[in-house]
């Protein structure tokens, strides 16, 4: 069975690297990026099942990144990760089709559970 | 100052507090999240050996260095918040304008990063000591930065300069665009009220009709007589 392919995008480099490693140790094919613009390019190059996006990012926000990625990849599933107090954008993201939003700090077990469910949701929708 | 102006100032003072503390708590949450993940990763690395075999020492060391880096970052953020909170202690304090500008630049860093612009300072070499209200002065400088951020595009720079004039200090905040007339209207009214409290004034100057500079003229002492032409 092919591992779930996850792209993590957050401008906090150390957070991305630790989360990617922890997901890889749990059998997820995870990659991380710190710039939303790079995510647009990476999704062109490789198929992902789920994109985990920070809501507040420099330049293009998580919400705008999702809009752009969704336009060209409607099957892609999105999980928003947010600091407290940024739930307005996350709720907007939910209305626009994000699978779930989680508040930082996120437990790795919760994240894996939601990533798995989101990937399954994407497959069911195909 | 009219009674309505006082109400506006009190409301805006609370809003300023809220903006700063929300931003700092968000930053601290990011710091805690990274420490949380790094600690979790250390647990994972130990668990991955299954109690046997070699642990990847380079990875453990790198993760531990990341934790130390975040603790240092968190300490800086907390100290900055603490200094900001104590700036309300007295209505009048002897402060160095350059230090205060750097404090506000630090407080504004998250907004600057999110907007993906740069904020640079060109400060007078010598200290510029003022007897002033540190909180109101920080608020005024922050409003200038916010106004400039609203008028600045991605990857552009905002410059803050300080200068010691003969009868007061001058702060200039330059962005490489014009401040929008409508968007800037309310913040500029607030800025005028803040500067009135400090016994100074705010002006906007335009260079070549393309970029605006907000100029704050601050007296060395707010206890001095406030009259037109008091500042150069």
Distance between the termini of chain B: 23 Å
Shape of chain A: globular
Order of helices and strands of chain A: EHEHEHEHEH
Rg of chain A: 13 Å
Output mean pLDDT of chain A. Answer: 92
The largest sheet of chain B is: 5 strands, mixed
Query: What portion of residues of chain B is helical?
Result: 55-70%
Identify the strand order in the major beta sheet of chain B: 2-4-5-7-6
Which chains have the largest interface?
A: A-B, 22 and 25 residues
Indicate the multimeric state. heterodimer
Helix proportion of residues of chain A, in percent?
Answer: 40-55%
Q: Would you identify the regions of chain A where 5 or more consecutive residues have pLDDT less than 50?
A: none
**SS field, number of helical segments of chain A:** 5
Instruction: Please tally the helical runs of chain B, counting DSSP H or I stretches of 4 or more residues.
Output: 5
Offer a quick outline of the entry.
By secondary structure, chain A is an alpha/beta fold.
Characteristic key phrases:
heterodimer, A: 126 residues, alpha/beta, 5-stranded parallel β-sheet, 5 helices, globular, B: 232 residues, two-stranded antiparallel sheet, 7 strands, elongated, disordered C terminus
Explain how this protein is built:
The complex is a heterodimer of chains A (126) and B (232). Chain A is built from five helices and five strands; from the N terminus they run E-H-E-H-E-H-E-H-E-H. Chain A is α/β, with parallel strands linked by helices and 126 residues long. In chain A, strand 3 (50-54), helix 3 and strand 4 (77-82) form a beta-alpha-beta unit. In chain A, helix 2 runs parallel beside helix 3. The longest helix of chain A has 18 residues, at 108-125. The mean pLDDT of chain A is 92. Chain B is an alpha+beta fold. In chain B, 56% of the residues lie in helices and 19% in strands. In chain B, the strands form two sheets. Chain B has a five-stranded mixed sheet with strand order 2-4-5-7-6. A two-stranded antiparallel ribbon of chain B has the order 1-3. The longest helix of chain B has 47 residues, at 3-49. In chain B, 31% of the residues are buried. Residues 224-232 of chain B have low confidence and may be disordered. The chains are: A alpha/beta (126), B alpha+beta (232). Chains A and B meet through helix 1 of A and helix 1, helix 2 and helix 3 of B.
């Amino acid at each position: 069975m092919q591992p779930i392919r996850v792209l993590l995008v957050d401008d906090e480099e150390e957070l991305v690297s630790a989360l990617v490693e922890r997901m890889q140790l749990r059998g997820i094919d995870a990659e991380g990026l710190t710039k939303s613009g790079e995510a647009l390019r990476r999704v062109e190059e490789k198929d992902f099942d789920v994109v985990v996006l920070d809501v507040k990012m420099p330049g293009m926000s998580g919400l705008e990144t999702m809009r752009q990625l969704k336009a060209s990849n409607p099957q892609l599933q999105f999980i928003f990760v947010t600091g407290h107090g940024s739930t307005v954008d996350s709720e907007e993201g939910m209305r626009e089709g994000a699978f779930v939003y989680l508040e930082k700090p996120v437990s790795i077990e919760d994240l894996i559970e939601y990533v798995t469910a989101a990937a399954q949701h994407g497959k069911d929708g195909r | 100052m009219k009674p309505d102006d006082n109400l506006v100032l009190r409301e805006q003072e609370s809003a300023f507090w809220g903006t700063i503390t929300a931003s700092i708590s968000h930053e601290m949450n990011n710091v805690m999240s990274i420490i949380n993940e790094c600690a979790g990763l250390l647990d994972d690395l130990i668990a991955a050996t299954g109690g046997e075999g070699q642990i990847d020492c380079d990875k453990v060391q790198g993760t531990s260095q990341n934790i130390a880096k975040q603790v240092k970052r968190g300490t800086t953020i907390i100290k900055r918040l603490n200094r900001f909170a104590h700036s309300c202690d007295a209505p009048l304090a002897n402060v160095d304008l350059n230090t205060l500008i750097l404090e506000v630049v630090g407080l504004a860093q998250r907004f600057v990063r999110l907007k993906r612009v740069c904020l640079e300072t060109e400060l007078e070499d010598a200290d510029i000591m003022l007897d002033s209200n540190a909180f109101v002065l920080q608020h005024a400088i922050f409003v200038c930065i916010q106004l400039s951020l609203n008028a600045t595009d991605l990857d552009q720079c905002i410059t803050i300069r300080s200068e010691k004039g003969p009868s007061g200090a001058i702060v200039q905040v330059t962005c490489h665009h014009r401040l929008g007339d409508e968007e800037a209207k309310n913040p500029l009214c607030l800025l005028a009220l803040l500067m009135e409290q400090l016994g100074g004034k705010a002006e906007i100057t335009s260079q070549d009709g393309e970029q605006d500079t907000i100029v704050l003229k601050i007296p060395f002492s707010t206890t001095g007589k406030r009259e037109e032409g008091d500042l150069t």
